[in-house]
């Protein structure tokens, strides 16, 4: 019998500057930074994003680890007008949005921003 996948535990971002990435994800997106045993991760909900410094990735790693190649969709319970207002107050440029999109659980409102490595970060809310 085949098994099924329940959820994502973590993913890895290869970055050019771990402190700058930590600042962005903690200050803009409210993630907690965890550093232990020479590794750094961003914690949120029951998931995490492990950070690898470009050129010093941990093994095993992606076949072609590269900063700026990720496209993430992160879910918030905050109403989209509050998200937009908060990003404006921080002077974070919204590349696109708010726009309606289809997510894993149906229709949602999204805005798109970029992190320090120019990864695309979609912030979404299921209405």
Automatic annotation (TrEMBL):
Ranges annotated as spanning the membrane: none
Domain VOC: 7-126
Pfam family, any one: Glyoxalase
CDD domains with a match to the protein in the record: GLOD5
InterPro entries linked: Glyas_Bleomycin-R_OHBP_Dase, Glyas_Fos-R_dOase_dom, GlyoxalaseI/FosfomycinResist, VOC_core
Taxonomic superkingdom: Bacteria
Protein name (Swiss-Prot/TrEMBL): VOC family protein
């Amino acid at each position: 019998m085949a098994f099924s996948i329940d959820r994502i535990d973590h993913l890895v971002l290869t970055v050019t500057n771990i402190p700058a990435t930590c600042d962005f994800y903690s200050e803009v997106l409210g993630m907690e930074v965890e550093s232990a045993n020479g590794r750094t991760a961003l914690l949120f909900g029951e998931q995490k994003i492990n950070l690898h410094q470009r050129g010093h990735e941990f093994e095993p790693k992606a076949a072609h680890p590269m900063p700026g190649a990720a496209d993430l969709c992160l879910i918030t319970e905050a109403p989209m007008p509050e998200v937009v207002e908060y990003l404006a107050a921080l002077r974070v440029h919204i590349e696109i949005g708010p726009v309606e999109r289809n997510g894993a659980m149906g229709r949602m409102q999204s805005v798109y921003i970029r992190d320090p490595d120019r990864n695309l970060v979609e912030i979404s809310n299921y209405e």
